């Protein structure tokens, strides 16, 4: 089954609106036409309107949020709704990032509500899962990932899975400079696909795109993307530099 690679930049709490524009102007020129990979940029909420102005609907790059509320509207100070994101042409939303889980207490039940709110609004979730080093070394890798997948994807239909991207991000590799080896990433992502086959069915698992995330850089991207179950990347630190992100995208086109 051939799956289109998807390379996403998670800028986290970096890049002001003017810095986002300074990145996107040359970057969008480099990737001005549809490419063999899907390219996604997730700026902070405050930089999203600027990015949306620059990323035109026929651009090769799609806009993503880094989070959203599962509520539709109302008295939820500081939150952002799916409808607000849709109005500025947002296509994807990162949900369940390990920083949201560990720093802001998001659990699988909350993430599941967000996944449903996103899908109902026609936003494509990039659902993040991943284990800590302690969990991996303690032999809990498979149970942790299975629980995260079952909880976050509860009651998602087979049809809706067509819009879901999974990002496997081992917590010990995020922002640490330590990357999972291609073998570790491949083995784990093959396991993730097998869990998707059990929750949904074989065809759904085979069609779902699974990104790897965790200290991806131009120097390790080609090795990782060459593996069967790695369908792209979610990139933090290395996505802040247009040149290095462009090199990672190019690795995705080649892989
Ligand atoms: C991330 O936060 O999703 C991530 C993968 O970060 P980094 O690439 O910096 O490890």
Features:
16% strand; single chain; 11 helices; eight-stranded parallel β-barrel; globular; alpha/beta; 255 residues; TIM Barrel; binds phosphoenolpyruvate; 43% helix; 8 strands
How would you characterize the overall build of this protein?
The chain starts with 5 loop residues before the first strand and ends with a helix. Strands 1-2-3-4-5-6-7-8 form an 8-stranded parallel barrel, surrounded by 6 helices. α5 crosses α7 and α7 packs across α8 (182-199). It has 255 residues and is of the alpha/beta class. The protein has helices at residues 17-30, 48-54, 82-87, 98-104, 108-120, 133-137, 141-152, 182-199, 202-207, 218-225, 242-254; strands at 6-10, 38-42, 61-65, 90-95, 124-129, 165-168, 209-213, 232-235. α1 links the parallel β1 (6-10) and β2. The structure holds phosphoenolpyruvate.
Q: Order of strands across the biggest sheet?
A: 1-2-3-4-5-6-7-8
The CATH superfamily appears as Aldolase class I
* Amino- and carboxy-terminal Cα gap: 14 Å
Helical content band: 40-55%
CATH topology: TIM Barrel
Order of helices and strands: EHEHEHEHHEHHEHHEHEH
Task: Describe this structure in a few short sentences.
The chain is 43% helix and 16% strand. It has 255 residues and is α/β, with parallel strands linked by helices. An eight-stranded parallel β-barrel has the order 1-2-3-4-5-6-7-8, surrounded by six helices.
